[in-house]
């Protein structure tokens, strides 16, 4: 897929199963759409299950979803309403697919981002088991800029897995603090932007997440900075990107 080198890029390290990452991406996407500014998002995997050596527990994900969705109802999230046994125990296949889709012959950064958005909506709003390749590929079929057949062939060859594990290795360094962590031009680096958030105590001890405040202003501030450095990118239309 052709790209425009003048379009600013934000690199986002995250786990698809992390509600805070999905909130940050929604905020950034909403700001770019409201302002009609093209933006490339380069997704990198921060695979929580590899860090923690266990599936991300549902008893952690559920209260985080409730806390965020109550504060930002426009997200359209729901608690898991699929079959209990269909709740995803791994996000690795989904994250691998997002990496595989970066291949220009499959979708490039634009297609990869479309697939990432579709996977997050499928999990947080539609309760689909995005651990399953057939579900991932069905979602890819509906992504305008993803060649689903090419993606299926790439995944059958194991594409995306090496990238996820390499990104996990990099994410163990001190620069990347967690999911989400955003990086952009001129040294911009922010972990979980906009959220004043804490747990009352460890979730393993019965604690609850507390979102004291959430500001969306960070997304506009980031776009202002990016477009101050790349004013010509404003001329790139959504159809040309």
Identify the overall geometry.
Answer: globular
Sheet with the most strands?
Answer: 4 strands, mixed
Q: What would the average pLDDT be, to the nearest integer?
A: 93
- Please count the beta strands (DSSP E, at least 2 residues each): 6
In which range does the helix fraction lie?
Answer: 40-55%
CATH class: Alpha Beta
CATH level-two architecture: 3-Layer(aba) Sandwich
Classification by helices and strands: alpha+beta
Could you describe the 3D structure shown?
Helices cover 43% and strands 12% of the residues. The strands form two sheets. Strands 2-1-3-4 form a four-stranded mixed beta sheet. Strands 5-6 form a two-stranded antiparallel ribbon. The chain contains nine helices and six strands. With 241 residues, the protein is of the alpha+beta class. The chain has one domain: Glutaredoxin.
